[in-house]
Write a structure and sequence with these properties.
single chain, about 210 residues, 5-stranded antiparallel beta sheet, 10 strands, rod-shaped
Amino acid sequence: MAANIELNKGALFAKVVSKLTKNSSFNVKTPTSVAGVRGTEFLVQDNGDKSDVLVNDGTVAVNAVDDDKHIGEEVVVEEGHKVTTNKDNNIKKSELTEEEKNSLKEDSQSVQSITEDARARIQDILKDFEENKARIKQHLEDQKESNRLELEGQKDKNRQELEDQKAKDKAELESVKGSTNIEKDALKTKGKSDMDEIKKDKGSLKDKLAPN
């Protein structure tokens, strides 16, 4: 993975805290230099005519670059040193002044503070995310349990309604059977009464037809 930053004018303070792998690189390009790092803190300044690379920690490999983009010889800049390059492909290495060291130290502390604040905010965001995830999970579990109880309640209600309907149908059937038996008994009684009446009439008729 390659990270290439172009700085045409201004200043850039970089703090590379992770050691880069063999196939990775971090480079800062200005009109007059290319600075490549391997886990370090450094400052690059460019005013259009020249560039300064100031190293606060670690080492930086710097190459001068002229207007035709020709890259000059590499110079390794250690902690506490700087190099200055210009458009003529010239490169000069020197020690940092106390003022420059203090300025780099302040920049490093500012970056560290910003990094810690950002890390704290990220931790807060992750904490909120986990809490929200837990709340959502609990809500889903509660909803699932509520749905289960509602379903069980509906099943019990349907079961009771079915039992009630069965009991009602049974009662109606028993009522129909009872009515049928009463009607049968009534018919039997009426039939017997009619037979007795017929027998009585036959007896009376015989008596009338008998010779005196």
